[in-house]
Amino acid sequence: MSGGEALAQSFQEWLGLVQDRLTAGAKSSGAWIACGPVAGSRLIGGAHRRALDARAPRLGGTCSGDRQAIPRRKPVSPAAPASGVAPSAAASRVLGNDMDAGYHRLSIMNTLGGTMTGKAPKPAIITCAPTGAIHTPTMSPALPVTPEEIAEASLAAAGAGAAIVHLHVRDPEDGHPVQDAGLFKEVIAAVKDKSEVIINLTTGGSPHMSVDERIAPAVQLAPELASLNMGSMNFGLFPMLTRFPDLEHDWERRHLENKDIVFKNTYADIERILKLCGDQGTRFEFECYDTAHLYNLANMLDRGLVRPPLFIQTVLGLFGGTGADLEDLAHLRRTALRLFGNDFEWSVVGAGAAQLRLGSIALSLGGNARVGLEDSLWDGPGKLAESNAAQVRRIAEMARLLHRDVATPDETRRRLDLRDSVGK
What we know:
Number of strands: 12
CATH topology of the largest domain: TIM Barrel
Mean pLDDT: 81
Largest sheet: 8 strands, parallel, barrel
Region (Disordered): 58-88
Shape: globular
Distance between the termini: 51 Å
Radius of gyration: 21 Å
Order of helices and strands: HHHHEHEEEHEHEEHHEHEHEHEHEHH
Number of domains: 2
GO molecular function: 3-keto-5-aminohexanoate cleavage activity; metal ion binding
InterPro entries: Aldolase_TIM, BKACE
CATH architecture of the largest domain: Alpha-Beta Barrel
Helix content: 25-40%
Strand content: 5-15%
Strand order of the largest sheet: 1-2-5-6-9-10-11-12
Structural class: alpha/beta
Cofactor: Zn(2+)
Keywords: Metal-binding, Transferase, Zinc
């Protein structure tokens, strides 16, 4: 059995579970789901019915506490299901006939991918975050540190199918995260010389940095895309010390063990970044770690500070943010659909072991996915990933098993309304 077929086989269980979680309600009482992208649908049976029925009021039910839809946005409404796309022959052989029903159940719910309107699902936008500011060099020999390593990892990820690379940089000597515009320029020049991949610079940097430090490279270099964190949050990395007790550099332990960190992203900070970067043509990847962050973004949209199409990156599984359970993913997706209609591109980051699982589920629902060693060092239980490109190949393979093409950088630029340039 190939690696792809093995993934497809395990994905069979996910399909049924996702359907149960996303349409959770109270079939036993004859209630209809009244909110979210599956309005008017009845709960499909499953092994988790009793647990889901017990939790139905907070998952679906009457939605009495829901924010009212904004009138000028198109509401998401149910439509007659399209026929969907039959699974590939290889996948069918592995999964058996049950996959047809499971795949169809999910695909007809997909408002973002186009199946509810009878259109083929849009190609999946894959983002790779090659190094980040969370993990440390001791944790994995594959984590790129120098500008040359980060550029090489970015190019390999682009070759494997990533349309976007989300860039951080590190001190070349000991690997600690920095916001050095000169190092960013080195990476960008090396990548743009050989690839059309979209460059997405961080404005998040590290929670240990000031906002001025964090935004300086994006303001100076004017990328076509920059990340923007949509709210403040507690930020806890200390659980990783259990797995990695022996660290090479002194800074690594200080970086990880701090329990007194608030990742500061106030309304003033967000508006300042929108102004400084947006005025020079930069568009944004809105990173949302919690439901409140989606509401913050809706407020910015209502006030005319951002414009669609919005690129929303929902981040799950970091300590201090939303968890990595399927119910968490479902709630964030429902909330985004209710707030923004179809005026956004939805992508998912699953931290750690949740990366492939949640990314694949997002793809099955017509969304997009981010992978990379910033978010997860792993390629299976206890197995470190060999490279960023390996993670991109894996998620691209999952997209194809779900009959999703992989978006090119040029197509992604059109969908996100980006310019093909970096710099003023």
